[in-house]
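Data availability (excerpt). The following record was deposited with the supplementary files.
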Amino acid sequence: MYRDQNAGRCHAIKTGDSSFERVEEFKYLGKSLTNQNSVQEKIKSRLKSGNACDHSVQNLLSSSLLSKNLRIKIYRAIILPVVLYGCETWSLTLRVAHRLRVFENGVLRRIFGPRRSEVTGERRKLHNEELNDLYSSPNNVWVIKSRRIGWAGPGAN
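Predicted structure:
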């Protein structure tokens, strides 16, 4: 093991003929692991992957040729599993729940599209309450909580 004399931190570990560099962050089995083991980084990585997935099916979610029910099924089958992978292990703080809801609301706004204002007739984006009324499925925060309860066993529900 080599040490920096100034900081006293390990820079490499040597075992036999192999040497391993010390890093602050790396990806293992699709998850970003940090030396701080922060759940924020894991969620940031999941949302980044979810945004990439959302971008890849953007034309489908915005298409008026597909029914809203089919677009919701695309979201639930393609995007949501990418975002919620490994969510059972996350500590669900208010900040995390808010970030997940913001992501989901953005996707749902694309699916449901803008509405015409009854007063001015101009197009406007949907408010969160309207999205909750239109999207009958449980939101992603509720899904995470129910999955965590599922890990407790069949008698926990």
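Summary of structural features: The helical segments are 39-56, 58-62, 68-84, 94-112, 128-134, 140-151.
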